[in-house]
Design goal:
alpha/beta
């Protein structure tokens, strides 16, 4: 068994334990393997171990891996900041985009989504920490943005995503993740049904699952420590 295969088993077991502790079914939480900065060979290894969903933060890296791994039935999720001049390749290659934070990006993704493909699944990224350095729209901007996205023909609004500030404070994490869960309920009350809360990473996965996460984005715990540069 390879290191990545073993790591995937450990992460899946951790998801199961966190779900059980929260009184949830483990199958209600999807694992997204974040493969950014790791080579295509690592993705192929994870695929061999049974993983199918992979997250990328950088457009050029998504393009390169999608081309190199086109023989595999992969589901690509774009999870990083997206500039308006780089939306076309994402609209053409990705199955999901988690990081929509303004209408202009959504409109471009919708217009550039090839007609032969199903609508692009999108999540609205919300800045739940209120940090200036964090991407995402403000919580009070979510409803009007969701209403606008729901009307775009090339997109399917699936839910919400957040990246709270790193903290060891359990109460703070619970509050940050709770913002997203509350916003999802507000959308439902306004007639906008969504099924996805994309929240939780390697370090805060259990807290996110306790708060209702349906998709955790895990990289380090699967592929190891990233080396940038």
């Amino acid at each position: 068994m390879t290191d990545i295969s073993s790591a995937l088993q450990r992460v899946s077991a951790a998801i199961g334990s966190a779900a059980q502790a929260a009184g949830r079914d483990a199958d209600s939480v999807t694992l997204l393997a974040v493969s950014k900065t790791f080579p295509a060979a690592a993705v192929r290894e994870a695929y061999t171990a049974g993983q199918r969903r992979f997250g990328e933060n950088y457009v050029q890296e998504l393009q390169a891996k999608a081309a190199e791994l086109q023989d595999l039935a992969l589901e690509w999720h774009f999870i990083g900041p997206l500039q308006s001049n780089k939306t076309r390749p994402v609209a053409e290659l990705a199955h999901w985009v988690h990081s929509v934070e303004r209408l202009k990006i959504a409109e471009r993704l919708s217009a550039q989504r090839p007609a032969a493909l199903p609508p692009l699944n999108v999540c609205i990224q919300v800045n739940v920490s209120g940090e200036d350095s964090k991407s995402g729209c403000a919580p009070d901007e979510v409803l009007p943005l969701a209403q606008a996205i729901a009307a775009l023909p090339g997109l399917r609004l699936r839910g919400l995503m957040c990246i709270p500030e790193p903290t060891q404070e359990a109460a703070t994490l619970a509050a940050r993740f709770g913002v997203l869960a509350t916003l999802q309920q507000q959308l439902a009350a306004a007639g906008i049904a969504t099924d996805t809360l994309s929240m939780g990473m390697s370090a805060d996965m259990a807290a996110a699952i306790a708060a209702g996460s349906t998709m955790v984005r895990v990289g380090t715990a699967i592929f190891g420590v990233r080396h940038y540069g």
